[in-house]
């Protein structure tokens, strides 16, 4: 423990996350935490500068919002443009898109769990900062690290062989998909997915049996709160990632299903002076408070939220894992470290769903795109579940099919309030009487990493 | 052991994912490199590990990899700190090299960006002039600068690794050339030079010379069972393809251009083929040569300068005359 000399701590950059953020911790006279705030540092202005661009170019521009989940921006924006232009892509194209979403989500989850989060669990929150990373992980467990590196890489390359470009993809086009899946490509992808599924199951078992259990109590001691949850469900109330109704569960477990086009009825955004990121909240609560065990208006997204709002998974192995999870933790689950557990269940689901799609006779259909689309004025709301949470695109076009308005709510934005409160609670529990340590501050960051922002 | 520091500025982390896409090559490189700073993977902090320092500090390193352009005051502070602490400053990817796609924001006044996000967006609880806005002056968030610019607009850059994101082979080439103390061999020709599609050549008659630009609301013609070499050049098919003015190499040393492999046209993400040229002028010449009337192009800046808005001399001229 170190005796702090300053009343303001600035933890920057928050690390092993994908975005740019800092945590400011303010101490009172007794050396306890009066407040803690996570500031997101930049605003790039995509919503503004995509105005005036041809709507069909949107899916090729917004990929640059996130180089880790470009496919999800690619997909959600395409869906919004198609709604605005009143077109429906052929069924094979829809299946190819969902397949690509699964193939892109698999390496994303491996990246987050092994490269960003696992160093804390394998090496310990108190490992020296210089070692507490994927290089340290490779030193401590070279076989595991090499397997994770190979599996993530293998799936990225499989996706690239089929679609041309894995980072900042171009294959999804307004009106369909740019190329059909050939039989030999289908067989190659099946082999990749079978390998990934085995790795997903092994990762799930490793996390469930070894890596996460020792940390459950530690996270409980860092604070836990009830909140709302947002996710997407299919007609049978199962987790869906590509399409379906949104489902918002409130702090008391009451669920409301609604079409994505009605998002403005259920969600509103607040702003704050100290961060460039907005704060969505449940509109029916009438406002948002970043405090307490039952914070007003606060809801969360991403993997844990999705398994909270859904009844189950539509695939057998993911459902089996969910049964174990529910038996142990119930529903809804609020503990932040269980985001990791839920994320790995989704990894299993993505592999199983990719297999299902690859076995669908329609997946190799030749009709993948509408021949020609007339630009037109309209309004469209499109969404997908991105690894970091529900991703909403809302656009308007003019007669020439140019974008006149774009409103985007990415997963990490939905989780802004949740991340802030989790870190504030942890800082308040752990930093007492002016004493702190690097381990404590890393534990506060572990609460953030669970959200995979 | 060579020390390496990395920073991501006005960026999307795609360059860092491309670095990981070295796959096992990265694991083999790791014993030769010590990463002293790289926020996406490593826990080094600017204000000390306990956050008690009031001054931003970066560790010394031999190589500094910076992705992203410069859009706010924190980016600028980090860039200068990086320049001071590293021997070789590498601009990783198109955003660092030219400002990249996010520099499309330069076509929009910076005030309208914050106004849309914080006073006009339809999901805001409070809209209009009374909506509370982020206050960089009173808090610790950075101020947005008027323009998104490449690193070289602010400091000396020693190496540029092109691409959005760069192909892992070029990242490896950049790093290995520094480790081995030799010049890096990066691509220098245009995308067309490595494009396998076939070309008919100059159309030669007046009627063909006036075809309108086709938007990607139409289908290019190709046989999915046949190789890329049996597809006609997408520019000749009438689609906007920036291949003629874009640097080659997005597919690595031997691969086809990636967007062409997906049967879609190039949008210029690797950056201009010739740094001395004005791509928007050269491109109109390329369209004419393909028999296409450039005047029918919707949204000229958004197509021709999609990855180059911060550096396109013609755009800047137009902006300055407008102001």
Which labels suit this protein?
heterodimer; A: 453 residues; four-stranded mixed β-sheet; three-stranded antiparallel β-sheet; 16 strands; globular; B: 323 residues; alpha/beta; Rossmann fold; five-stranded parallel β-sheet; two-stranded antiparallel sheet; 10 helices
Draw up the topology in text:
The complex is a heterodimer of chains A (453) and B (323).
Chain A (H helix, E strand, L loop, with lengths): L1 E2 L4 E4 L9 E7 L5 E8 L5 H4 L8 H4 L8 H16 L5 H33 L10 H7 L1 H22 L8 E2 L2 E2 L5 H29 L1 H9 L6 E6 L11 E5 L5 E4 L4 H4 E4 L8 E4 L16 E2 L2 H7 L6 H14 L8 H22 L18 E9 L2 E9 L5 E7 L1 H4 L1 H15 L4 E2 L1 H12 L4
Parallel strand pairs in A: 7-12
Antiparallel strand pairs in A: 1-16, 2-3, 3-4, 5-6, 7-8, 8-9, 10-11, 13-14, 14-15
Helix pairs in contact in A: 4-5, 4-6, 4-12, 5-6, 6-7, 7-12, 10-12, 11-12, 14-15
Chain B lengths: L1 E7 L5 H7 L3 H6 L3 E5 L23 E7 L2 E3 H13 E7 L1 H5 L11 H11 L23 E6 L9 E3 L6 H13 L30 E2 L45 H4 L17 H11 L2 E2 L6 H5 L8 H10 L1
Parallel strand pairs in B: 1-2, 1-3, 3-5, 5-7, 8-9
Antiparallel strand pairs in B: 4-6
